[in-house]
Specification:
Layout (H helix, E strand, L loop, with lengths): L1 H11 L5 H4 L2 E2 L1 H13 L4 E7 L4 E8 L5 H7 L6 E10 L5 E10 L6 H17 L5 E5 L7 H8 L1
Parallel strand pairs: 1-3, 5-6
Antiparallel strand pairs: 2-3, 2-4, 4-5
Amino acid sequence: MSFLRSSISNKAFGFQSNASSGMGVADQCKHTFLELQRKKVHRYVIFKIDEKRKEVVVEKTGGPAESYDDFVASMPENDCRYAIYDFDFVTQENCQKSKIFFIAWSPSVSRIRAKMLYATSKDRFRRELDGIHYEIQATDPSEMDLEVLRERAH
Protein backbone atom coordinates (compact mmCIF):
# COMPACT_ATOMS: atom_id res chain seq x y z
CA MET A 1 0.00 0.00 0.00
CA SER A 2 2.86 2.41 0.79
CA PHE A 3 4.33 1.77 -2.70
CA LEU A 4 1.01 2.75 -4.26
CA ARG A 5 0.83 5.86 -2.10
CA SER A 6 4.40 6.92 -3.03
CA SER A 7 3.71 6.27 -6.74
CA ILE A 8 0.61 8.42 -6.62
CA SER A 9 2.36 11.23 -4.74
CA ASN A 10 5.38 11.10 -7.06
CA LYS A 11 3.12 11.40 -10.11
CA ALA A 12 1.16 14.21 -8.48
CA PHE A 13 4.40 16.17 -8.12
CA GLY A 14 5.71 15.27 -11.58
CA PHE A 15 8.37 12.80 -10.45
CA GLN A 16 8.88 9.47 -12.12
CA SER A 17 11.01 6.49 -11.25
CA ASN A 18 14.05 5.77 -13.41
CA ALA A 19 12.31 2.76 -14.91
CA SER A 20 9.60 4.93 -16.43
CA SER A 21 11.61 8.08 -17.15
CA GLY A 22 12.98 6.84 -20.48
CA MET A 23 11.27 8.49 -23.41
CA GLY A 24 9.36 6.68 -26.11
CA VAL A 25 10.68 6.65 -29.67
CA ALA A 26 8.62 8.04 -32.55
CA ASP A 27 8.25 5.62 -35.50
CA GLN A 28 9.65 8.39 -37.71
CA CYS A 29 13.01 8.03 -35.91
CA LYS A 30 13.40 4.39 -36.91
CA HIS A 31 12.16 5.04 -40.43
CA THR A 32 14.58 7.95 -40.96
CA PHE A 33 17.47 5.92 -39.53
CA LEU A 34 16.73 3.09 -41.99
CA GLU A 35 16.70 5.62 -44.85
CA LEU A 36 20.19 6.73 -43.78
CA GLN A 37 21.46 3.20 -43.23
CA ARG A 38 20.06 1.38 -46.25
CA LYS A 39 19.20 3.97 -48.88
CA LYS A 40 21.84 6.61 -48.08
CA VAL A 41 19.12 9.29 -48.35
CA HIS A 42 20.64 11.25 -45.43
CA ARG A 43 24.20 12.07 -44.36
CA TYR A 44 23.03 12.71 -40.80
CA VAL A 45 19.95 12.79 -38.59
CA ILE A 46 19.57 14.92 -35.46
CA PHE A 47 17.05 13.82 -32.85
CA LYS A 48 15.62 15.69 -29.89
CA ILE A 49 13.42 14.80 -26.96
CA ASP A 50 9.95 16.29 -27.22
CA GLU A 51 9.04 16.60 -23.54
CA LYS A 52 5.35 17.30 -24.23
CA ARG A 53 4.97 14.12 -26.32
CA LYS A 54 7.41 12.22 -24.07
CA GLU A 55 9.29 10.78 -27.03
CA VAL A 56 12.38 11.17 -29.15
CA VAL A 57 11.61 12.79 -32.52
CA VAL A 58 13.54 13.71 -35.67
CA GLU A 59 14.59 17.36 -35.54
CA LYS A 60 16.67 17.67 -38.72
CA THR A 61 18.16 15.60 -41.53
CA GLY A 62 21.10 16.44 -43.75
CA GLY A 63 21.25 15.43 -47.40
CA PRO A 64 23.94 13.08 -48.74
CA ALA A 65 25.97 15.99 -50.14
CA GLU A 66 26.19 17.81 -46.80
CA SER A 67 29.56 17.93 -45.04
CA TYR A 68 30.61 17.15 -41.50
CA ASP A 69 30.91 20.90 -40.91
CA ASP A 70 27.24 21.27 -41.91
CA PHE A 71 26.37 18.56 -39.41
CA VAL A 72 28.32 20.16 -36.55
CA ALA A 73 26.81 23.58 -37.34
CA SER A 74 23.33 22.02 -37.01
CA MET A 75 23.94 20.92 -33.42
CA PRO A 76 22.73 23.42 -30.80
CA GLU A 77 25.46 25.06 -28.76
CA ASN A 78 23.57 24.94 -25.46
CA ASP A 79 21.14 22.01 -25.61
CA CYS A 80 21.44 18.22 -25.72
CA ARG A 81 20.71 16.09 -28.80
CA TYR A 82 21.21 12.62 -30.18
CA ALA A 83 22.61 12.31 -33.68
CA ILE A 84 23.50 9.70 -36.27
CA TYR A 85 26.25 10.44 -38.77
CA ASP A 86 27.08 8.25 -41.79
CA PHE A 87 30.86 8.56 -42.11
CA ASP A 88 32.35 7.63 -45.51
CA PHE A 89 36.07 6.97 -45.83
CA VAL A 90 38.63 5.15 -47.94
CA THR A 91 40.79 2.41 -46.36
CA GLN A 92 44.53 1.99 -46.91
CA GLU A 93 43.59 -0.75 -49.39
CA ASN A 94 41.64 1.91 -51.33
CA CYS A 95 38.23 0.48 -50.45
CA GLN A 96 35.24 2.79 -49.95
CA LYS A 97 33.71 2.16 -46.50
CA SER A 98 30.96 3.65 -44.40
CA LYS A 99 30.49 3.57 -40.62
CA ILE A 100 27.49 4.84 -38.69
CA PHE A 101 28.21 6.87 -35.58
CA PHE A 102 25.77 7.53 -32.75
CA ILE A 103 26.62 10.82 -31.06
CA ALA A 104 25.19 11.77 -27.67
CA TRP A 105 25.67 15.56 -27.58
CA SER A 106 25.44 16.99 -24.07
CA PRO A 107 27.23 20.36 -23.97
CA SER A 108 28.56 21.40 -20.57
CA VAL A 109 26.48 24.62 -20.74
CA SER A 110 23.15 22.82 -21.22
CA ARG A 111 20.58 22.63 -18.40
CA ILE A 112 21.10 19.91 -15.82
CA ARG A 113 17.52 18.69 -16.37
CA ALA A 114 18.21 18.24 -20.10
CA LYS A 115 21.46 16.37 -19.42
CA MET A 116 19.68 14.01 -17.04
CA LEU A 117 16.77 13.44 -19.41
CA TYR A 118 19.05 12.64 -22.36
CA ALA A 119 21.33 10.45 -20.23
CA THR A 120 18.45 8.34 -18.85
CA SER A 121 16.83 7.92 -22.28
CA LYS A 122 19.94 7.21 -24.36
CA ASP A 123 20.25 3.43 -23.99
CA ARG A 124 16.62 2.73 -24.81
CA PHE A 125 16.76 5.03 -27.84
CA ARG A 126 20.01 3.56 -29.11
CA ARG A 127 18.63 0.00 -28.87
CA GLU A 128 15.89 1.03 -31.32
CA LEU A 129 18.53 1.84 -33.97
CA ASP A 130 20.09 -1.42 -35.05
CA GLY A 131 23.31 -1.15 -37.05
CA ILE A 132 25.30 1.56 -35.27
CA HIS A 133 29.04 0.90 -35.40
CA TYR A 134 30.44 3.44 -32.91
CA GLU A 135 29.19 5.72 -30.15
CA ILE A 136 30.63 9.07 -29.13
CA GLN A 137 29.67 10.96 -25.99
CA ALA A 138 30.52 14.64 -26.51
CA THR A 139 30.28 17.60 -24.14
CA ASP A 140 32.44 19.88 -26.27
CA PRO A 141 32.78 20.19 -30.09
CA SER A 142 36.40 18.98 -29.93
CA GLU A 143 35.16 15.60 -28.62
CA MET A 144 33.27 14.98 -31.86
CA ASP A 145 35.81 16.47 -34.26
CA LEU A 146 36.11 14.81 -37.67
CA GLU A 147 39.53 13.45 -36.63
CA VAL A 148 37.87 11.60 -33.73
CA LEU A 149 35.57 9.85 -36.20
CA ARG A 150 38.46 9.01 -38.51
CA GLU A 151 40.47 7.48 -35.66
CA ARG A 152 37.52 5.39 -34.46
CA ALA A 153 36.60 4.18 -37.97
CA HIS A 154 40.08 2.94 -38.91
